[in-house]
């Protein structure tokens, strides 16, 4: 029985965290990147994290942050995992004694098999949309045919997913997990309970169809 994991990223409010958990999400993302409209401080994030039940993964997102900044956030929060969304190298990502995902902003000329080798220590690769305008949270999809068959690491599909396109994404890519932020928002930084629920139901529906077929 296969199940697609779901991370809801860009959590800024306790009620949004709980809307995601109640709908069945596996992981919550907290953005520690000051220029993002979804940015939280360590103390804001920890105030939310301490209300969460067990078995929900708390992921801290950083973009080219100084190592000391990451260390401080790790010390002040109960993060389970780190997500590096900038140009970080593997030896930097490995410094923090926590599992990490490396976000790769996909472009046609990029060799994703080489990325898996470059980030051999990563728990997963998170494939997101490349944009000149923003490092992440673009709300735009990328060309999923650029993902090669036979990737060895778990693939977390991100970038512009929403209730209108997640079914097609799951059918086409069959990723280990999907990651969504803007597609389940009412406005930037504020999640919509209805959109989260719709998104989760579609993922579960697709999993049920896939499991019936095998
Ligand atoms: O959300 C942001 O503002 C952000 C800023 C800088 C780097 C990454 C950022 N977000 C990444 C995510 O929320 C997700 O991991 C993923 O990229 C999905 O975003 P979206 O396209 O909005 O679904």
Layout of strands and helices, then pairs:
Layout: E1 5-8, H1 14-23, E2 27-31, H2 42-49, E3 57-62, H3 67-76, E4 81-84, H4 90-93, E5 100-106, H5 112-118, E6 124-129, E7 155-157, H6 166-173, E8 177-180, E9 185-187, E10 190-191, H7 193-213
Parallel strand pairs: 1-2, 1-8, 2-3, 3-4, 4-5, 5-6, 6-7, 7-8
Antiparallel strand pairs: 9-10
Helix pairs in contact: 1-7, 6-7
The structure holds the ligand O=C(O)c1ccccc1NCC(=O)[C@H](O)[C@H](O)COP(=O)(O)O.
Describe this structure in words.
Its EC number is 5.3.1.24. Pathway: Amino-acid biosynthesis; L-tryptophan biosynthesis; L-tryptophan from chorismate: step 3/5. This is N-(5'-phosphoribosyl)anthranilate isomerase. Keywords: Amino-acid biosynthesis, Aromatic amino acid biosynthesis, Isomerase, Tryptophan biosynthesis. This protein is of the alpha/beta class and 214 residues long. 32% of the residues lie in helices and 21% in strands. It contains 7 helices and 10 strands. The protein has helices spanning 14-23, 42-49, 67-76, 90-93, 112-118, 166-173, 193-213, and strands spanning 5-8, 27-31, 57-62, 81-84, 100-106, 124-129, 155-157, 177-180, 185-187, 190-191. The strands form 2 sheets. It has an 8-stranded parallel beta barrel, surrounded by 4 helices. Helix 1 (14-23) runs parallel beside helix 7 and helix 6 packs parallel to helix 7. It starts with a strand and ends with a helix. The protein binds the ligand O=C(O)c1ccccc1NCC(=O)[C@H](O)[C@H](O)COP(=O)(O)O. Residues 9-10, 29, 31, 33, 36-38, 61, 63, 85, 128, 135-139, 158-161, 179-183 line the site of ligand LARABZUK.
């Amino acid at each position: 029985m296969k199940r697609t994991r779901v991370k809801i990223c860009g959590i800024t409010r306790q009620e949004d965290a709980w809307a995601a958990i109640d709908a069945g999400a596996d992981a919550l993302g907290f953005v520690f990147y000051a220029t993002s409209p979804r940015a939280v401080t360590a103390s804001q994030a920890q105030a939310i994290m301490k209300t969460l039940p067990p078995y929900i993964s708390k992921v801290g997102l950083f973009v080219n942050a100084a190592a000391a900044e990451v260390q401080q956030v790790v010390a002040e929060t109960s993060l389970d995992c780190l997500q590096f969304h900038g140009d970080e190298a593997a030896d930097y990502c490995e410094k923090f004694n926590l599992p990490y995902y490396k976000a790769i902003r996909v472009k046609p000329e990029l060799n994703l098999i080489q990325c898996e080798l470059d980030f051999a220590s990563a728990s997963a690769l998170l494939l997101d949309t490349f944009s000149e305008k923003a490092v992440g949270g673009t709300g735009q999809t990328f060309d999923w045919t650029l993902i090669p068959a036979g990737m060895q690491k778990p693939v977390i599909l991100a970038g512009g997913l929403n209730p209108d396109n997640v079914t097609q994404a799951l059918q086409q890519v069959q990723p280990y997990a999907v990651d969504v932020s803007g597609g389940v928002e009412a406005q930037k930084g504020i999640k919509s309970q209805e959109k989260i629920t719709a998104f989760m139901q579609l993922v579960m529906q697709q999993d049920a169809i896939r499991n019936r077929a095998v």
